[in-house]
């Protein structure tokens, strides 16, 4: 059986000869967004600002999460970090990385 066959069967629980205990129930987009945010906050201990993006991938989800990295006065110049969080199809964390740091008031305009 090829990897493509395995992926197709994972997505189709009615496929012949597919044991129920091996079927993986994929999380919804909303569940993936919440899971990405929650897991990153737990790992970093930083305050969440919000979820900025969500993309379905072949093997799961890629979630954009914004965290407060440093509080400043006034709050409009807090230092934020934008992270990409990679989740598997069940919402399990595969990895994360920071892609940008910027002041709250200096985000991209567009």
Order of the strands making up the biggest sheet: 1-2-3-4
Distance between the termini: 47 Å
Number of helices: 2
Largest sheet: 4 strands, antiparallel
Q: Can you give the helix content as a percent range?
A: 10-25%
Strand count? 4
| Helix and strand composition category | alpha+beta
- Describe the global form: elongated
Radius of gyration: 18 Å
Strand content: 35-45%
State the low-pLDDT regions, or none.
Answer: none
SSE order in H/E notation? Answer: HHEEEE
The average pLDDT value, as a whole number, equals: 85
What report would you give on this structure?
The structure is a single chain. With 110 residues, the protein is of the alpha+beta class. 23% of the residues lie in helices and 39% in strands. It has helices at 3-11, 29-44, and strands spanning 47-57, 60-70, 79-88, 93-103. The protein has a four-stranded antiparallel beta sheet with strand order 1-2-3-4, covered by helices on one side. Strand 1 and strand 2 (60-70) form a beta hairpin. The longest helix has 16 residues, at 29-44. The radius of gyration is 18 Å and the shape is elongated.
Give a brief description.
The protein is an alpha+beta fold and 110 residues long.
Properties at a glance:
4-stranded antiparallel sheet, 2 helices, 110 residues, alpha+beta, 4 strands, elongated
Task: Map the helices and strands.
Blueprint: H1 3-11, H2 29-44, E1 47-57, E2 60-70, E3 79-88, E4 93-103
Antiparallel strand pairs: 1-2, 2-3, 3-4
């Amino acid at each position: 059986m090829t990897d493509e066959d395995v992926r197709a069967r994972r997505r189709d629980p009615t496929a012949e000869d597919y044991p129920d205990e091996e079927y993986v129930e994929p999380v919804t987009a909303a569940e993936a967004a919440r899971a990405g945010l929650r897991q990153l906050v737990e790992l970093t201990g930083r305050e969440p600002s919000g979820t900025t993006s969500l993309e379905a991938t072949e093997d799961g989800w890629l979630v954009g999460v914004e965290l407060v990295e440093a509080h400043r006065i006034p709050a409009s110049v807090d230092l934020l970090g934008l992270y990409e969080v990679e989740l598997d199809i069940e919402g399990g964390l595969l990895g994360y990385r920071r892609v940008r740091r910027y002041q709250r008031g200096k985000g991209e305009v567009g």
